[in-house]
Design a protein that fits this description.
Layout (H helix, E strand, L loop, with lengths): L6 H11 L4 H8 L3 H29 L3 E4 L3 E2 H15 L7 H11 L5 E2 L4 E2 L2 E7 L3 E7 L1
Antiparallel strand pairs: 1-5, 2-4, 3-4, 5-6
Helix pairs in contact: 1-3, 2-3
Amino acid sequence: MSTYLTERQVKVLKLLSQGLSIDEIAHTLGVSRSNIYALIRSAKRVVSKSANTVKLYNELTGNNAVIVYREISINDAIMKILAEANSMGVKIPLTTAELILKLVKSVDDVCIDLINSMIKCNLVFRLDPTDGVVIDRFS
């Protein structure tokens, strides 16, 4: 897999994930503890910069979408949308009640079972910090 992490950073992170201490990693790789700390710090910077790049790309291309598959409760769908929007760094300018109302108004009756509070169709919610969400049905 191609990444922006160096082979050395990957090696250190793998050893950390296996439970080795900084001292053990330094000994294993034949380098100083400060070198291991520097590799970890630089790896964190790379990951942070990559995440920011993805976030910016999604903002610029409008690629912030959440897919909700049929047979999910309306409440669970709303919670999923809000959680994913939060993880994408998109602030939806709608309350939960407004989001539910928009959902009900945006799709036909075949897709919403209000009695059982269920979504009956596959839906894609395109997240927009200005308009909130645009909801489309897909097969």
